[in-house]
Structure formats: C-alpha cells, structure tokens
Structure to design on (644 residues):
C-alpha cells in the first residue's frame, strides 16, 4: 500500500478547544444499508458521532468508506436504515437534503473547484446564492478564510493557475465559507504530491483545534494518531473495529485490522 | 579522457544560417521540404494560374481589368458577347433582394428594424460594453415587439403589410435570428430534460429530440404549411411565416439539445457533486456551475448548428416564402435583365451574402472561445 504515508506535523497540538460533547449528537446512523445495483456496498452501519468528534475512517480500497461519508450529505442514497444529521433525517425531501448540505462541508480527493470562476467567486457563490449573504460580506468572509489557509494573494486567480495543495486549501476554505457544523474529508491528500500533503494537513489540524466536528477518510495514519479521537476500520462495507487511536494502533483486536495495520505500518 | 571541463570563452549569439531564416528558409520548410512537397507546390501553382484569371475576369468590372458590368451599366452591356458578371442587374434589383415585395413607400420601416437591430446587437456581442442587462432586455423583449409592429403595421397610422409581402434578406434574417435565439433556451431545456432523473420528462425529451432529428426540415416545412391547416378548425389560419418560424426553431432546438448534451456529459461528475455539497439547488447549480462550463466546451458545435440553421432558412422558399435565395431565383427570370450571365450573377450574389453572415459567426465564435479560456481543462 504505497499510497499510505506518515506525514508528521512537527508541532504540539493545542487541545484546549478539542472537546467532545457528551450530549449533542452531530450524526446518527442506525442500521444503514446501501446497495449499488446488486452489490451490497454498506452493511448494517451504526455510527453515532458526537459534536466535536474527530473521526478517521481507514480501510482497504473498496471497503465503502467513501460511500459511507457520501451518504451523510446524500451524494449517495441509502436504501435501509436511518441517517440523522444535525437533527434532520435524510429522506427524499429535497428541501431537507439542501438544509443538511448547508451545514455539512465536504472536501473531495480531486478538489472539484469550479474552473470557470476565480478563487474568490468559488468561495462566495454558495454563501450568496444559498444563504443570501450580501456580496460584500461574502467576499470579506472569503478573504478571511483564504488568509486562514494562507493564500489570500491567490484570490483573483483561476483554480487552474494554482498548485494541487493550494487548490485543496481553497476547497477547504470554500466549505468553511458556509460556516458548516460538520466537515467531511474524502481522501483529501491522496491526489497530492508528497510535499503538498503537509500544507493541507496543517489546515485540517488547525480546524480540529478549533473544535470542528470532522470525519476524515484518509490514509494519513500520522494525522489519525495526532488528531483523531476515534479511528474506525472498515472492510467489505462493514465497520470492523473502532477504538481510540492509541489502542487502535497498539492493540488491534480483529484479525483483519491486524493484517491491515501490519501491511501499512513498518 | 578527463571528466572535468571549464568553459574559457563565451559564445556570442549569432544570426541563424540564411537557409533556415527569412523568405528562403520559409519556402524551404513549407514549400520544397521534400520532392513530394515540391511536386505538390508546382501542381498548386499551376492550378492557381489556370483557375484564378478566368474567375477574376468574370467577377471584376472593366475598370479593374475584368469583363464584368459594373453597377450603372445597361442590359445591353450585359448581353454583349464575352461580358462577365452583370453587377448592374444586382444593383438594379437590390431593393427586391433586401425587402422582397415590401411596398417601396414603406422601406423606412424595415430600414429602421435593421438599424435598431444593429445598434442593439453590437454592444450585446461586445463583452466590454456597459448596461448589459438593459441591453439584453431591450434586444430580447422590446425589440421583437417593436419589430413586429413596425413591419406588420396596422398601428399609429402605419399601413398594414401582410407577411406575404415581406421578403429577401429581411425574411432570411428574421427566420434565422428568431430560430437562433428561441432554440437556445429550448435546446438547453431539452438537453437537461434528457438527463433528468424523472422518467416522464426524460422520455418526453428523448421522444421530441429523436422525432425532430429524424425528419428532414423540408418535411417539417411542408407539414407546417400544407398539413397543419387541414387539421385547423375552419376559418382559423396561422400565418405562414409564423408556421415556418416555429418549424425552424423546433427543428434547430432538437439539434442544439444534442450538442449541449455533449457538453454536459463532458463535465466531470465532481463538478455536480461539489455544487450539490454546497447546498446549491438543481437550477442554481445548473445556472452557475454546470451550464457555463458545458456551453463553453461546445461553442464550436453550437455555432456549427447556427450556421447550418442560417443556410437552411433558404428551404422556406419551397413553401412559398420569399427569402433571399428565393428572391434571387425569382429575379433571374426578369426579362428586362435577361442576359447569359444573369442567373449566375444572382447566385454568386446570394452565395456571397450567405458567406458574409456565416463567416462573421464563425470568426466571432473563435474570438469568444479564446476570450472565455481560463487556462485549464475542466
């Protein structure tokens, strides 16, 4: 598994704001199943995510981890079971789906910036047209988040003029402009050159430090160790094992987890 | 052999050898690179020597060294042996080619329509021009209404001129402009409909597109002008020009839908997903994310459809509408100007008129494509 890397961020993580709520549920998935045609891709998924949790989902390719987080903002439809996000149940009701999507940011492996719009337009489009934020205010917010991801000078360029790492940071900023309550990361560093992985992970860590609820599908085990409060291991569409990172890496219980870890960790 | 090397003297820049630069270099590279190229060059030059002088002699007037009769010449000049194109005939019948049977006393009305159209469309096509929104409203909403009342008359003391009397370039431009402008939104909606998740909308779109694409435009026009009145209740009539307009528009929108669909399918799924994940509704993500990119990708195809549409307008002549080509054809039997080159000159003129408009569209689309290129592939 050459795609797995262990980029380490050499700084102490400020944990003062990283609090997991005991009472507030961010996402509740109960007995969820999903099929692609005849293929049973997700089987009996039960997952409760509390507000402020930082969850890393790991597993071999094809294990359903991306599909699982894509179900959370309804990019994929589930066929059985319940998904409740921020108290809103996901059904076929389009209005509710858009409501959920406003509160759930998503970062994709291939960035998916809008190539025909400048960086600032990428960041302001949804706040203006979904939230109805006045243009000047949306632009101020956009600049604020571009500064946070450390590329305010790129604001008026087009995505095609930026490096992969810069594009991914813009993509994170674009999600943040909607002030989401939950952030989903779908292999955010897998398409990046090794030297750019770090700059994206830095941004993700600083988000975690602010107490953002995050679910990350990633192969960055260093990130999992440093940031996550829970690691979930999936295989064949099922959650095989979950634990805090300490115990997950040092003392895996399930045979499949041990095999996986022995292959990716040296 | 030593592995170390240190340059002791810098080499100054020198001009390239004569054989690769300048005219000689260009000719070597482009005309005489290989024996085959040399043969092709010689054949090409021979063809030009054989073809150009006679053509030039036919279309150039006397004072430019040709045999053609310049505007202002008489029919006798055109009938003289060895005379070239009869441009005098074109200029004498020009008003018929532009207005058809429109009453000459009312020519100011189509002229005003032409003038207003030019004044409104130039700033609309020129991206840097200000007041785009006002301009668009004036052109797409106010202008058609004004045109209708100006041309048709019957208000403000203007004489009524029925559409049967409209003709020439005026009708060609009306049909093609209305066809182009109305087929864009219909074509886009059909393309979106064909990709819809709702089975009824998808089926209807597919049926519409496949039906209209499978039928020749001539058939559509015949149906519209001959069959349709048979099904209409007694006494009600729909204007012939209007029927042709609707036929041409729907025909063109079916083709356009397929072109737009190509653009929609070329977009990566990630663009749809990114738009959805930000909470944009279907119509907003189409309007701001998907269509701007999809349409940009298919500008060449769209303009191709428009050029085809512009030329296809000449088919309305078979249902008795006097478009540009039909007026040229009708005038070629004008005995006052009968001469050996009368018909040929007319068709040359018609071809040239069509070419001007089509070439302008083509150049404009190339310019627009370059302008919209933001330096990446979507």
């Amino acid at each position: 598994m050459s795609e797995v890397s262990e980029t380490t961020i050499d700084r102490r993580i400020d944990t003062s704001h990283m609090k997991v709520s005991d009472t507030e549920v961010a996402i509740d998935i109960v007995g969820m199943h999903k099929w692609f045609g005849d293929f049973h891709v997700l089987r009996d998924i039960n997952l409760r995510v509390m507000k402020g949790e930082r969850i890393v989902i790991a597993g071999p390719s094809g294990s359903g981890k991306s599909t699982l987080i894509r179900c959370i903002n309804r990019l994929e439809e589930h066929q059985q079971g319940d998904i409740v996000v921020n108290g809103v149940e996901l059904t076929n009701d389009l209005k509710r789906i858009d409501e959920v999507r406003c509160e759930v940011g998503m970062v994709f492996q291939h960035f998916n910036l809008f190539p025909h719009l400048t960086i600032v337009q990428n960041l302001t489009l949804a706040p203006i047209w979904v939230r109805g934020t006045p243009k000047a205010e949306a632009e101020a917010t956009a600049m604020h988040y571009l500064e946070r991801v450390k590329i305010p000078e790129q604001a008026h360029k087009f995505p095609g003029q930026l490096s992969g790492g810069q594009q991914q940071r813009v993509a994170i900023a674009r999600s943040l402009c909607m002030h989401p309550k939950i952030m989903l990361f779908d292999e955010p560093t897998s398409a990046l050159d090794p030297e750019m992985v770090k700059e994206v992970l830095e941004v993700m860590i600083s988000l975690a430090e602010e107490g953002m609820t995050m679910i990350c599908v990633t192969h960055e085990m260093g990130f999992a160790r440093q940031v996550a409060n829970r690691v979930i291991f999936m295989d064949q569409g099922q959650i095989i094992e979950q634990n805090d990172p300490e115990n997950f890496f040092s003392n895996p219980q399930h045979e499949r987890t041990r095999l996986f870890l022995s292959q990716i960790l040296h | 052999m030593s592995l170390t090397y240190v340059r002791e003297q810098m080499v100054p820049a020198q001009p390239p050898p004569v054989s690769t630069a300048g005219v000689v270099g260009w000719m070597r590279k482009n005309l005489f690179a290989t024996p085959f190229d040399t043969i092709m060059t010689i054949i090409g030059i021979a063809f030009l020597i054989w073809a150009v002088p006679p053509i030039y002699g036919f279309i150039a007037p006397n004072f430019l060294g040709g045999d053609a009769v310049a505007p202002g010449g008489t029919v006798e000049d055109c009938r003289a042996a060895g005379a070239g194109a009869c441009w005098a005939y074109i200029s004498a019948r020009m008003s018929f080619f532009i207005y058809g049977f429109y009453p000459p006393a009312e020519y100011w009305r189509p002229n005003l329509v032409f003038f207003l159209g030019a004044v409104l469309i130039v700033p609309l096509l020129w991206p840097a021009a200000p007041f785009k929104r006002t301009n668009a409203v004036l052109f797409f909403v106010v202008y058609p209404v004004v045109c209708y009342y100006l041309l048709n008359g019957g208000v403000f003391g203007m004489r009524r001129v029925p559409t049967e009397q409209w003709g020439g370039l005026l009708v060609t431009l009306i049909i093609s402009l209305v066809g182009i402008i109305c087929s864009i939104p219909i074509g886009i909606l059909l393309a979106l409909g064909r990709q819809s998740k709702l089975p009824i909308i998808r089926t209807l779109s597919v049926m519409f597109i496949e039906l209209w694409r499978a039928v020749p435009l001539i058939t559509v026009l015949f149906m519209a002008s001959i069959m349709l009145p048979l099904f209409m209740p007694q006494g009600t009539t729909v204007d012939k020009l209007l029927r042709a307009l609707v036929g041409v528009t729907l025909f063109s929108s079916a083709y356009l839908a397929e072109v737009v669909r190509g653009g929609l399918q070329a977009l990566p799924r990630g663009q749809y997903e990114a738009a959805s994940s930000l909470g944009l509704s279907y119509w907003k993500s189409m309007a701001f994310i998907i269509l701007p990119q999809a349409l940009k990708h298919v500008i060449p195809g769209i303009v191709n459809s428009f050029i085809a549409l512009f030329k296809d307008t000449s088919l309305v002549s078979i249902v008795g509408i006097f478009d540009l080509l039909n007026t040229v054809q009708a005038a070629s039997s004008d005995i006052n100007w009968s001469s050996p080159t009368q018909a040929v000159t007319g068709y040359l003129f018609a071809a040239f008129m069509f070419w001007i408009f089509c070439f302008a569209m083509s150049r404009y689309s190339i310019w627009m494509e370059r302008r919209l290129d933001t330096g990446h592939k979507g």
